[in-house]
Amino acid sequence: RKKITAALVGNPNSGKTTIFNNVTGGRQHVGNYPGVTVEKKEGYKNLGDKEFAIIDLPGTYSLTAYSQEEVVTRNFIVNDKPDVVIDILDASNLERNLYLTVQLLELEHPLLLALNMVDVAEDLGVKINDSKLSQCLNGTPVVRTIGVRNEGTDAMLLAAAEASGNKQSNGFKLDYGNDVEEAIKKLEPLLITLHNEIKFPVRWLALKLLENDANIKKSLIKLSSSDSVVNECDKIRIDLSHKLGEDVELFVAGQRYQFVGKVYQQIADVRDAHAITTS
Ligand code: GDP
Ligand code: K
Ligand code: MG
């Protein structure tokens, strides 16, 4: 059997554990990530000629360094390199959920989007155009699931297997505007030499340093050759924040929200409030 490792990622309460339990049944193994109290759950499922190892990663709204869950999630994707990441999205709360999706795309790892809770969305009168969503995100594949009924989960795994073949990034790049893009361009050549030791994509590293990400900075400082790089990065970041008139981190977050808001407008068909019946 062909082995495929798939990591489930998503906001808290998007249905990850429900899907994980339904798919893997009793075939589970629970451990801990080294050095932190975050639980590591792995389960297994055979489907056709494939054997899936599925990891239920902790719920997270973002991929910053503010919580263990976020750091565990991004480190797992980059260091353990699952064949594919499955982003479980609450379709009834999609705009907010897509904020994480953008950041997952920026990790340039094979990604599948699972629109979960489509039953809840429909009850709320929200229809999501999934092919349009895929189109807005450079062709990132999208499937629909109803976790509680275990609906769509086999198709999800098959689509994940297919997505795992997309080793090349699909080229998704959120445009953060001239000032930020210029700073990224200055940083990238400095970071390319460290790329062997820090596995994150270079553009992502540049963005994180502009966001003053404590965890990434710490790992850079540990590399003996990188002192001057870290100082140079700080300079570029401070320059940029003067230009923007605000913290780069806030600005970048704002750009992400703006992008996600635009995508949501294109993909969501919200029925008139008066047409919604309560049940
Ligand atoms: P997690 O935090 O991402 O692991 O989310 P959970 O798996 O704990 O699910 C959160 C809640 O949503 C639970 O009460 C689930 O039963 C429920 N749930 C999960 N998937 C669906 C779905 O597709 N439809 C509906 N209606 N409820 C769901
Ligand atoms: K939960
Ligand atoms: Mg869970």
From TrEMBL:
Keywords: Cell inner membrane, Cell membrane, Coiled coil, GTP-binding, Ion transport, Iron, Iron transport, Magnesium, Membrane, Metal-binding, Nucleotide-binding, Transmembrane, Transmembrane helix, Transport. Residues 3-166 form the FeoB-type G domain. It is found in: Cell inner membrane; Cell membrane. GTP binds at residues 10-17, 35-39, 56-59, 116-119. It comes from the Bacteria. Its main location: membrane. GO terms for molecular function: ferrous iron transmembrane transporter activity; GTP binding; metal ion binding. Mg(2+) binds at residues 21, 24-25. The keyword Glycoprotein does not apply. One of its GO terms (cellular component) is plasma membrane. Belongs to the TRAFAC class TrmE-Era-EngA-EngB-Septin-like GTPase superfamily. FeoB GTPase (TC 9.A.8) family. Probable transporter of a GTP-driven Fe(2+) uptake system. This is Ferrous iron transport protein B. The lineage of its organism: Bacteria, Bacillati, Bacillota, Negativicutes, Selenomonadales. The chain holds residues 3 to 281 of 794 of the full protein.
